[in-house]
């Protein structure tokens, strides 16, 4: 069985698969990769099933040593990866030989990288998933579930069937590699309590360049910009979908992500599209963004194409 030793976990490294479905009524967060696009490509490069567990590495500064020869793939944020000091490119698969060390520097562009292992990573199964949700103390390593990786942890291959021929020197075509810019446009759909926002407030919302604050994690992203106050400050608590855009009393919007709470009582103007959520996962503090009304038919068609491509 292939094993990878964590020499340094960096800022935050978590085992993630596609996450838990149907657990919201239990008060549990779904978890799963923040950037589904980069996650799925990492597994595809190795011939893994699209939902095989992989590592989500936030901001970088992580390193891993191979106990045996192991096939890996790295996608997402550019973290100046190297093997024994020799630079390698991202968005490709490669072989880490016994004793070699893969090192990731600080993310230069983007926010999260994904490291996949041939055969997937063995994890602690809870409600049908090994996705790590720290606030729920679920998923992660079998020997110590519910936490982020620490120095000395051992990652073992789950032994899932994979295409060995696809696990050596495969590259993602350039047209599928995102450009993690410092300004992005985010498609959203007006839902929930959008009627509590006046036409003038909506116009201001769509015309504002919001800045991502340093208060962001897997639960949500706080934005800074023109304050918007809906007709009332609270609503009866209700289920919250990923990408919900809620407005607390401060008037500064919060976009809720994978590890969000399952219920909330702040007014919500709508939801970010799933495709825009993937891009938003790579946005760092200081990035500016602007919202636009997305066409639900167009977004649905693109999402269906994505899901078919990765057999999700």
Automatic annotation (TrEMBL):
InterPro entries: CT_A_B (IPR003778), Cyclophilin-like_dom_sf (IPR029000), PxpC (IPR052708). Pfam families: CT_A_B. Residues 25-309 form the Carboxyltransferase domain. The keyword Nucleotide-binding applies. Keywords: ATP-binding, Hydrolase, Nucleotide-binding. It comes from the Bacteria. GO terms for molecular function: ATP binding; hydrolase activity. SMART domains: AHS2. Gene3D superfamilies: Cyclophilin-like (2.40.100.10). Signal peptide: none annotated. This is Allophanate hydrolase.
